Every structure is written in C-alpha cells, then in structure tokens.
Amino acid sequence: MTEADYPNFPCQDGYLCGTGSESSTGTADCPKDKYCIAGVATYCPAGYYSTVTGLRAESECTACSPGKICPSYSVGIYDCVEGYFCPGLIIDEDDMTICPVGNYCPSGSPLPLMCEPGYYQDDTGANKCKVCTQGNYCPTSGLDAPTSCATAHEMFYCPTGSIYPQKCPIGYYIESD
Known about the structure:
The protein is mainly β. 2% of the residues lie in helices and 23% in strands.
C-alpha cells in the first residue's frame, strides 16, 4: 500500500498534530500561548496570551490586562515596571508610559496614581510620592510642588507632611526674618 491508499483526516481544533499523528486529537493539547486550528499551532498575537492549553481559535486568546506586559511569542505575562503605567495591550517595555509629575506608579500600575494631600512628586517616572517637607504644606492631591508655609501665612507653621498650615500654639511664637 502507498500513502495515497490511506485516508487522511483533519485533526481537531485545540490539538497539536505532528507528522504521523494517528488520531484526531493528535499528540497533545495545543500548548500555552498558542491556538491550534486543524492541528497546526499558531502563537497568540502580540498583546494577547494564554495560560491554558487547548485553545481552538485566536479569539480565545486573552487580551493583555491593564498593568501588565504581554510580550509576543512568550508564555505568560509580567507586571508593568515601577515608574511607568500600562493601560492595556502592552507588548514590551518600550510601549509603557512614564509616570507624570504629581503622580506615582508602583509596579503593575494600569494608570498613574495621584499623590495624596501631604505629599507631592516633582519628578517623572516615580514609584512613590515625596512627603511634604517641613516649612511647606501640600493641601490637594496630585501636586508637583509643595507650597511654602512662611510666604503663605504669618503666625502659622508647617511640620513635615503638612496638609494645611497650623496655628502656632498658645505660649509659642514664630520667629520671622
């Protein structure tokens, strides 16, 4: 008998069928990060991934989540790098967005986070905010610079981390220049 005498049948979607496969389910489930149509494996497109085996169509690949990086042609995903944010479908570190002033971006940030009152950030690419320094106050979220206590209010003082200037307590005074 020749090869032409044997009937050939397509493999089932979701399975890997190498040369000489003897069943419709081939030799294995379609591997992670790939989908298999008629036994042929194809990588999920860039920005998509799969952590499970047996995908039968490209549409079963999962879109890269916000805060994550999904490199093309590799299994798995990893967190967006600190100091940057990843809004979604990020393929590699070149696609990340640097964290703007007034904000901070810890590892895995889908969006920048505004510095809270009492803190500020005057640099881009920060992974945490700076505490408002003594002699200054930071009254609102998202500040890129503190406000000087001395020039804003007489008879008030601002300890480290101040949200608002505080009145000098009874029995104390503020020395002016």
